[in-house]
């Protein structure tokens, strides 16, 4: 790669980075951009808000942390150009929950039974019975982008599903995803698409917690199979283990914070995109 290639780092809209995620999302982009500067790239920083408004700097490489539909639409023409975009806007849109559920339906990937409905609709008795696996909890999640605030993903009793959906509708959220609860240990993973980086830990406890004796090979296979289906290159997610050898994908998202492994992840992402620029990674 010739020195001086131009990277445009597109920072996520703060609305899509609730609570501590705002500083963590900014930090992983900063760290990745710093590694690329060390590799000889020129750098321009911009924001999802600017991109959504049609203000997109020229570049050879775009680090895309946008999550909203408007910004994705502005970035979409780049997929047909000679530039590198990580993650591609089409793959980001695939992670919007109503699309994610459709993409995973009919595949062999293990994913909880999920019903996507307009937030103003009324789920049928049959739908609620199918979602109630005896745990007395049904997850109600916003059906478009990932959580903007804690109340965007809640577990409620079966008789509270409808009033909870109404609160989503009152907030102007058009779709909800009703999802069956999966018992067992829950782990969070982070990855880069060609497999050079993959880390996981017990969700909610950080790296210092005792790690459950799960089947790591099956966890990794599930994570990378799902990412390939969605077209993701920099990604993370959550997996439950109703049995230690049976991972179930709960969620997957584009460009997470990598917070427990930031320095290591930034180095891996920078190396990956540099190789993409050189044509060594497809």
Could you characterize what this model shows?
By secondary structure, this protein is of the alpha/beta class. Among the domains are: 6-87 and 260-277, Rossmann fold (3-Layer(aba) Sandwich); 113-180, 2-Layer Sandwich (Dna Ligase, domain 1). Helix content is 33%, strand content 25%. It contains 9 helices and 12 strands. The chain has helices at residues 21-38, 48-52, 69-75, 89-94, 97-104, 125-131, 161-170, 216-230, 262-277, and strands at residues 6-11, 42-47, 61-64, 84-86, 114-118, 138-142, 153-156, 175-180, 186-192, 197-202, 234-243, 246-254. The protein has a 4-stranded parallel beta sheet. β9 and β10 (197-202) form a beta hairpin. α1 crosses α9 (262-277). The chain is globular and about 60 Å long.
List the helices and strands and how they pair.
Blueprint: E1 6-11, H1 21-38, E2 42-47, H2 48-52, E3 61-64, H3 69-75, E4 84-86, H4 89-94, H5 97-104, E5 114-118, H6 125-131, E6 138-142, E7 153-156, H7 161-170, E8 175-180, E9 186-192, E10 197-202, H8 216-230, E11 234-243, E12 246-254, H9 262-277
Parallel strand pairs: 1-2, 1-3, 3-4
Antiparallel strand pairs: 5-8, 6-7, 6-8, 9-10, 9-11, 11-12
Helix pairs in contact: 1-9
């Amino acid at each position: 790669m010739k020195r001086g290639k131009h990277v445009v780092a597109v920072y996520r809209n703060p609305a899509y980075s609730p609570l501590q995620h705002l500083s963590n999302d900014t930090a992983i982009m900063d760290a990745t951009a710093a590694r690329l500067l060390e590799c000889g790239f020129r750098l321009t920083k911009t924001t999802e808000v600017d991109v959504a408004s049609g203000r997109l700097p020229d570049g050879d490489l775009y680090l895309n942390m946008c999550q909203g539909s408007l910004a994705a639409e502005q970035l979409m023409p780049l997929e047909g150009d000679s530039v590198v975009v990580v993650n591609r806007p089409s793959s980001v849109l695939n992670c919007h929950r109503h699309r994610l559920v459709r993409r995973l339906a009919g595949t062999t990937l293990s994913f909880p039974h999920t019903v996507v409905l307009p937030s103003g609709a009324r789920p049928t008795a049959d739908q609620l019975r199918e979602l109630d696996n005896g745990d007395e909890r049904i997850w109600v999640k916003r059906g478009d982008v990932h959580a903007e605030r804690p109340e965007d993903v809640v577990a409620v009793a079966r008789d509270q599903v409808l009033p909870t959906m109404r609160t989503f509708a009152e907030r102007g959220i058009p779709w909800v995803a009703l999802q069956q609860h999966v018992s067992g240990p829950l782990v969070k993973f982070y990855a880069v698409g060609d497999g050079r980086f993959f880390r996981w830990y017990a969700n909610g406890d950080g790296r210092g917690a005792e790690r459950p004796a799960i089947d790591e090979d099956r966890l990794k296979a599930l994570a990378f199979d799902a990412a390939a289906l969605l077209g993701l290159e920099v990604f993370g997610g959550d997996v439950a283990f109703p049995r230690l050898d049976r991972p179930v994908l709960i969620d997957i998202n584009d460009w997470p914070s990598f917070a427990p492994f930031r320095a290591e992840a930034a180095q891996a992402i920078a190396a990956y995109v540099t190789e993409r620029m050189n044509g060594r990674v497809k």
